[in-house]
TrEMBL record:
GO cellular component terms given for this protein: cytoplasm
Species of origin: Deinococcus hopiensis KR-140
Single Gene Ontology BP annotation: tRNA queuosine(34) biosynthetic process
Molecular function, one GO term: preQ1 synthase activity
Class of the enzyme per the UniProt entry, highest EC level: oxidoreductase
PANTHER family noted in UniProt: NADPH-DEPENDENT 7-CYANO-7-DEAZAGUANINE REDUCTASE
Protein name: NADPH-dependent 7-cyano-7-deazaguanine reductase
Enzyme Commission number: 1.7.1.13
Gene3D superfamilies in the cross-refs: 3.30.1130.10
Keywords: Cytoplasm, NADP, Oxidoreductase, Queuosine biosynthesis
Reactions mediated catalytically: 7-aminomethyl-7-carbaguanine + 2 NADP(+) = 7-cyano-7-carbaguanine + 2 NADPH + 3 H(+)
Pathway(s) per entry: tRNA modification; tRNA-queuosine biosynthesis
Family: Belongs to the GTP cyclohydrolase I family. QueF type 1 subfamily.
Amino acid sequence: MKTTAEKPAQQGFDRRYDVQGLDAIDVAVLDTFAYVREDDLAAYPGEPMEIEITTDEFSPVCPWSGLPDFGQLHIRYLPRDRCVELKSLKYYLTSYRFVGIYHEHATRRLLADLVKLLDPLKMEVRCDYGMRGGLNTVCTVRYAAPAPDAVQEG
């Protein structure tokens, strides 16, 4: 029975960088604006507008090593009444920079925060985290607003 820890084969293999917890995700910075301007009286034909936001600068960190993960993030949604303001979204995404979180949890958290903020008709969050150790992780989560309750006739 060993009582002392073995030294790693190479110096630095036991290194780990500190990471922040989920409370470092800055949800309060998120802001919105009205989907339809009050001063715009034009009626727009067709389906609701689909909004797609893409960035390749999403970079939470591995909770185990503290090393950065780089993901290409795609957010697609059908707004109900509100749209996300892009500068605030950038600050929100940047707040993940030192948060130790698994790919799957980060993707689900993004969806949860944005659905709570916007109450969209539909939303999809997809993140392609790229290759690591010969494996590529792509996480996709979706939300669809519940159908309005059917009016009951008495």
